[in-house]
Amino acid sequence: MQTVLPLLSPPLRARVARLPEPVLGRLQEIRIREGRPLEVGWGLEYGFVGDAGEPTRNAQAAYRPTRSDCSALLEALTQHSLYTFEEELKRGYITVAGGHRVGLAGRVLIEGGRVRSVKDVAGFNIRLAKEWKNAGARLLPQLLDPVSGEPLHTLIVSPPCQGKTTMIRDLARLLSEGAGGAPDGLPLRPGARRSYKVGVVDERSEIAASVKGVPTFDLGPRTDVLDGCPKAEGMMMMIRSMSPEVLVVDEIGRAEDAEAVHEALHAGIAVLATAHGRDVREIRQRPILRELLAARIFRRIAVLRRHPLAGIEAEVFDEDARPIEPRRQLGGGGR
User: Fold this and answer.
1) How far apart are alpha carbons 13 and 172 in whole angstroms?
2) Tens digits of per-residue pLDDT, 74-117?
3) Residues 147, 123: one domain?
4) Are 270 and 247 within 8 A, CB to CB?
5) Do 316 and 177 sit in the same domain of this protein?
């Protein structure tokens, strides 16, 4: 919250900061809509925020952000220069320090049939990124080749806000660190998992939360990050220049992403990627992902779900979409 609260106008900041600790400590989203109730989401719950900072389900009792509140937030997000953030406005979100992504809603400007920008921004969704060490510890063994122990091409699937980014962030760290092992050429202790050179292409600056190119989240000692770089181009840059053994990317789904995944495959690099979807059947409806699945590129498909009591659960499938073991509870966690 230390990086988010300063972005808010004093009236918004005061009310959010006064939220009770059980809510504030689990906060995932802050939704600010001009003239409409201030809303927050924590865990699987949501509520509006009253004048005294109390959560309430009564929309009529909630604080309603003003035009001044929204203007101040947009100015802070764009550092008082809308022109500088033209590309981010075109995509509909801005990533701020700490890896928090702020979605934007308002009037869309179209030029040549394509979105040029979002104008008259009147809605914001601040999605809070959180580091969860060992989020992937129980999942990782299922993503390794049972004979060689090498990481397999893996696709992490879930709807938004169910833990995909949190999961690949920690998997990158675990692969980079190894477990009781050492880099190539040095002896491993019995049962150890060696460490890998990991390349992270962080198009939205959410995985590493880099500031001036330096990650603020722990991604392990052998990890290199390309921050703010388009996925497909970044994967090719990593392959050509950084010799990674594992490539990590978030939210693939375009034709150029698929090409880059194929290039990594032919270069002997394991790919760890995420995609939006509720299950394997749903991602098969997306043309690019359907092609990758039909080619049996991903040897493991991990479907994440957030359970109200058990936290994040994962069910892992092989390249033929057959479950490799029953659904596993991974515990609590963030986005």
Assistant:
1) 34
2) 999 998 887 778 878 888 888 888 878 899 998 888 888 777 77
3) no
4) yes
5) yes
